[in-house]
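Hey, quick one: can you model this chain's 3D structure?
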Amino acid sequence: MNIGPILVGSSVQESLIWFFWTEVVIVVGLQFLIILVYIIGFFRKKFYSKNE
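Sure thing. Here's the predicted structure for all 52 residues.
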C-alpha cells in the first residue's frame, strides 16, 4: 500500500480547504449571532414598551 506521496499531496489541499471552511463557518456564525442578538434586543424593547 503505497499511499505516502498521495496522502502528502492531498493533505496540503485538504488542510487548506478545512482552514477555508472553518474561517467561513466562524465568520458566518459570528454574523448570525450578532444578528440574532440584535433581533432579540429589538423584540425585547418592543415587548417591554408594550407592557409599560
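One thing worth noting: The radius of gyration is 22 Å.
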